[in-house]
Amino acid sequence: MLEKLNNKLELKTVILLFPITFLIHDSEEIITMEKWVDSNIAYLYSVVPKRLQFVIESVHLTTPQIAIAVFVEFIILFFATFMLLRSLCSGVWLIFFTALLTMLFINVFTHLGQCIAFRGYTPGVVTAVFVSLPYSLYLYYRLFKAKLINWRTVTISFFVALVLFPIVPFAHFIGRTFV
Question: What DSSP element (H or E) covers 161?
Answer without folding.
Answer: helix 151-164
